[in-house]
Amino acid sequence: MVRIDSRDPDFAQSFARLLTMKREISEDVDDAVRRIIADVVAKGDEALVEYTSRFDRLGASFSAERLRIGADEVAAAVEACPPEAIEALRLAAERIETFHRAQKPADHKATDALGVTAGWRWTALESVGLYVPGGTASYPSSVLMNAVPARVAGVPRIVMVVPTPDGILNPLVLAAAHLAGVDEIYRIGGAQAVAALAYGTATIEPVAKIVGPGNAWVAAAKRRVFGQVGIDMIAGPSEVLILADGEANPDWIAADLLAQAEHDTAAQSVLITDSGDLAEAVEKAVERALTTLPRADIARASWRDYGAIIRVRDFDEAVPLVDRIAPEHLEIETKDAETLSLKVRNAGAIFLGSHTPEAIGDYVGGPNHVLPTARSARFSSGLGVLDFMKRTTVLACTPESLRALGPAAITLGRSEGLEGHARSVAIRLNL
Amino acid sequence: MVRIDSRDPDFAQSFARLLTMKREISEDVDDAVRRIIADVVAKGDEALVEYTSRFDRLGASFSAERLRIGADEVAAAVEACPPEAIEALRLAAERIETFHRAQKPADHKATDALGVTAGWRWTALESVGLYVPGGTASYPSSVLMNAVPARVAGVPRIVMVVPTPDGILNPLVLAAAHLAGVDEIYRIGGAQAVAALAYGTATIEPVAKIVGPGNAWVAAAKRRVFGQVGIDMIAGPSEVLILADGEANPDWIAADLLAQAEHDTAAQSVLITDSGDLAEAVEKAVERALTTLPRADIARASWRDYGAIIRVRDFDEAVPLVDRIAPEHLEIETKDAETLSLKVRNAGAIFLGSHTPEAIGDYVGGPNHVLPTARSARFSSGLGVLDFMKRTTVLACTPESLRALGPAAITLGRSEGLEGHARSVAIRLNL
């Protein structure tokens, strides 16, 4: 953990060092991924079954018939879940749905004084594939965060893939898929699942876009199939930035810093405060809380290697620092938190006031928890309904409006050396 | 050019062949591009000046002071342009601006029955870099199509880079930049320009996102810097699909097919019609028009290698074919063109009726001419104001609403093995 202070003479350098810290562990799996994709393209189900039975240890009897997870298996999983968890998922799904419904974009059409009609029409993607990791990173909340906006967008076919290493699958993941309205589920993972979604096999129809988190193999495969299909962002390690003043509760702030740090040893938790007392109290509170946290090993490593406490003179000084960090999650626990939030340009999601811990947003707040990491909030947004729709523009000229606009188009076409463009207009005007 | 007919027994295969035709010429420049980017990162202006003077043949005296194109040079360029072309550009800029203003998204905020306030805020990117190719592909219309939406979005700093091979620069490109409100212009191109925009040098501040077309070097560089900055789509060769019935004018259709074909030998022009007579007449009209077209060599190669005429029984049969092609440009010159257009899901831009040649949309229609190619209209949209903005979600709980939602968040956190998440909520509720 680093402690830096805007009053230090070398503050600019220390802050820049914090910004450029490399947290991604890049595994070079690109060659292997290329081979797997080529195999699935060439041999379809046969390759898919072979890779799945080998990587997930499903035995020699695994076959194409078992790729799809049937409705009976889903129903059994829902039965097996604690009712309390199902109820919590249902509440989360409803709130996520309500929030995302407001994101549905409007079509537009207007006819101008010349008689030109121009506008656009939004349509849902025809199909989407949702990747869900296996093992401990198999989060039912992420199933909701990816599938619910797709359903709200109106995507008619939502496919989910999830690997079942040693045949084990978190039943809550199936319950979440059921609640979110996923149409098809396949027990596959890794680069082979991404290839199947992008190119299709006898059992799995291809999709138009692939979303969802995954390990290095999945990320490399998504990069490779991009163009053939759409992909969402490639997410890096999670991060939180907390702005808090001297009135904030140090134990609450410490809990939030550790909630982020427990994700991953490469996660990052940063506190910016104008209070030396709070800085000191939070540091002690983190140490205290670590003594009883189940994932303390992970959280301690993250806090040690990437954590930071930054002291500033006042929060006006903090705003440009926030914009340079462009945090995935920004908690503001200061006086006039909302006013301060309006000065921030770059952040994935903002959590206002001391009663809005980031974890509420991970589950039941309503906004999406799939957010831009690694400073990409400077140029991108969290997942939403627009990621599952696309816009087609529409233009219609009357003979009269073509006569009005045509000469300018002809001039510009000729000035660009594109006589064929000019002629396609001129021929309609007898010019 | 291929002629296929939905009545042919092998239609499915012929159509699939048309869909999977590979039109991209992939030059392998990735290693060279990696070296150039590393050089610019390590040596800044020095590397930028060296590459620019060498690749663009600007002589040994070229220096960092000359990288920026000054206001005087821009003013002189505007003076040097034909007034008619300036007027046409001005009309185009105004119409593009009006169309894109309607795309500005609304912020949202709502407080629910529990007292949770949730919403989002759109903000403009802090800076954008616009790549403009040199030589014959240096299109002033593309400057407008990229820069005007950025200005409408409210981007406070718009930077343009354009190479000047042998010191030559199309004055209309500078005039378009001036009209569109570009703030800074640099005479650089290639991978070195992309690197300078992404990482910055002493002369050029880095930007948050890079947009605009370019050759294989530029495309490879954009792929490499993605993540450090945002990028737009990587555009492939242009394409048009025309739906026309027996009432359409074959000479007009031929002109539109050739306007597309003259772009590039890898461009693609396709006609779908229910009329054998029209199919035949268009084929002849294309041959006639080619005899006098200045860029006939390019257009003829494109039409020969990638052109197609598809006969269908009726236009209902055409709709799923259109959706599978997912054309960049779709012209509909049939009876009830608008009704037919509403059945189409996948297209970048639609041009309705016989008086809306695609070239009008390239210049003065209003909608953007930067559109998804190579079937990517299945999952992406043309350029617009949203490409220059990003959304920050905002969540605020009161103590009471945290009490209402908290237990579900605690349940889900624990079910995902994230006790630290659960505790960050529980600690605020004394649970």
UniProtKB/TrEMBL annotation, chains A, B:
Active-site residues per Swiss-Prot or TrEMBL entry: E328 (proton acceptor), H329 (proton acceptor)
Official protein name in the record: Histidinol dehydrogenase
InterPro entries linked to this entry: Ald_DH/histidinol_DH, Histidinol_DH_CS, Histidinol_DH_monofunct, Hstdl_DH
Family affiliation: Belongs to the histidinol dehydrogenase family.
EC number(s) from the headed UniProt entry: 1.1.1.23
Sites where the protein binds Zn(2+): Q260, H263, D362, H421
Record-listed substrate binding positions: S238, Q260, H263, H329, D362, E416, H421
SUPFAM superfamilies: ALDH-like
The species this protein was found in: Methylobacterium persicinum
Keyword Cell division: no
Domain of life: Bacteria
Co-factor binding comment: Binds 1 zinc ion per subunit.
Described purpose of this protein according to its UniProt entry: Catalyzes the sequential NAD-dependent oxidations of L-histidinol to L-histidinaldehyde and then to L-histidine.
